[in-house]
Amino acid sequence: MCRIEKMAAALLLRCCSDQLLLLLLLLLLLLFHPSLEQQQDQEDPAQLSPLDLAALLSIKDTLIDLPGTHFFSTWDFTSSPPRDPCSSFAGVTCSPLSPSLLRVSTLSLGTGLSDSPGLAGTLTPAISNLTQLTQLILSPGYVTGPIPPQLGLLTNLRVLSLTHNRLTGPIPATITALRSLHTLDLSFNQLAGSIPPGLADLTQLKVLVLASNRLSGEMPDPPVGLLHMDMKKNNLVGTLPTALPPTLRYLSLSGNAMWGPLNGLDPLSELVYLDLSMNRFGGPIPSSLFRPSLSSLLLQRNNLTGGIPVPRRSEPDEGTTPSGYVKGSVVDLSHNDLSGELPGILAGVEALYLNNNRLSGIVPEVYVKSVREGKTTTFFLQHNFFSGFPMREEVVLPDGVDVCLSYNCMVPPVGLATCPTSAGLQLSRPAVQCSVFRNGGEILD
């Protein structure tokens, strides 16, 4: 091969080697350096939706910090460069809707601290533009005005809590469109009108708290699957709903003006707390309510009649068998029209109030035993017609045990020292009243 040909071949070989080396370098760059798309993402992070940003601005325009509250101090819309609400605004949490777009997913208005006075102002309808919200929480304060009906547009909402403020007007019927709602708490406001019947359609709802408002009318059927329902201190009337969810564990209707029998409570086998006190319910107490698993049974100040059910054979009787009630249990049947003798089914209840009824007979020994052992620490039987309490006068009760037996048809073995002032100062009933009662006469207390 001539010299010129040899030089051309060497040059070609060197050129190919350079191309291979360049290709190898490009591959290494692709492996160990971010792509152009990734570099662009780093340069341009996801931004909050302008619609959400405008809604937050409207919220700040309609709510203010009360003196001593500094919740909105981080909500700065004027800084340069602009602050990111998702990372710097108190109470705001965002979630990505796309690689470049963020939406507000939870909004907690107020610090929630017990020593914080909270916020004042009104709720803006612009909150409804935060359509990706799953939680909307308003801390206790002095927020007034109505609940915006536009909140019914927040179809992703799972928690709506606007408790302990000064909200007025009705509960918007549009709330029944929130089919994902798990918790609805509008308690301790000044809401009026009836409860929207469409709440029964919220099949995901587990917690419903409308207590301490001015709600009126009859209570509609609650949603199936509800666990906790608190409607106390309103102006509700009528009878119990015909279809109470058997899943209920907590039910309070205290302080209303409801009436009728306690029908419909038998299926509620999961109840651990029941408060129907200070209403106008009448008729007998269902025997199914006298079970240790229902550790708080509050039926005081109604018009209930009949006796306290005698235990079934499979349950504790008037003997020495413990009833199964545990520490912290409370049963209050006071201020009714209950009659008959006292069975042993309630022995062992820690706080037992049976005062101001028409109960009679000798108190079973099992209650005396429970008091002496300190299992029952409050035992109020005053203003009944009991004729005996089988405990010797020299027995000293444990510290912290309060027993009141005044104004019965006996001379009680304990005095008035542990009686409430409402029991009065008379140790026993007048003998003539006891005689009339034994002969079936009417006694007016």
Would you give an account of this structure?
The chain has helices at 3-32, 36-43, 50-62, 85-88, 365-372, 431-438, and strands spanning 47-48, 63-65, 92-98, 101-109, 119-122, 135-138, 142-145, 159-161, 166-169, 183-185, 190-193, 207-209, 214-218, 228-230, 235-238, 250-252, 257-260, 273-275, 280-283, 296-298, 303-304, 330-332, 339-341, 351-353, 358-362, 378-380, 385-388, 402-404. It is of the alpha/beta class and 445 residues long. The chain has a 15-stranded mixed sheet that branches. Strands 2-5-7-9-11-13-15-17-19-21 form a 10-stranded mixed sheet. The longest helix is centred in the first third of the chain and has 30 residues, at 3-32.
Counting H and I runs of at least 4 residues, what is the number of helices?
A: 6
Counting DSSP E segments of at least 2 residues, the number of strands comes to 28
Poorly predicted regions are 6-13, 36-42, 313-321
- What's the quaternary structure here? single chain
The rounded Rg comes to 35 Å
User: Which class of secondary structure composition applies to the elements?
Assistant: alpha/beta
Beta-strand content estimate? 15-25%
- Shape estimate: elongated
Distance between the termini: 136 Å
Considering DSSP H and I runs of 4 or more, what fraction of the residues is helical?
10-25%
* Major β-sheet profile: 15 strands, mixed
Mean pLDDT over all positions: 89
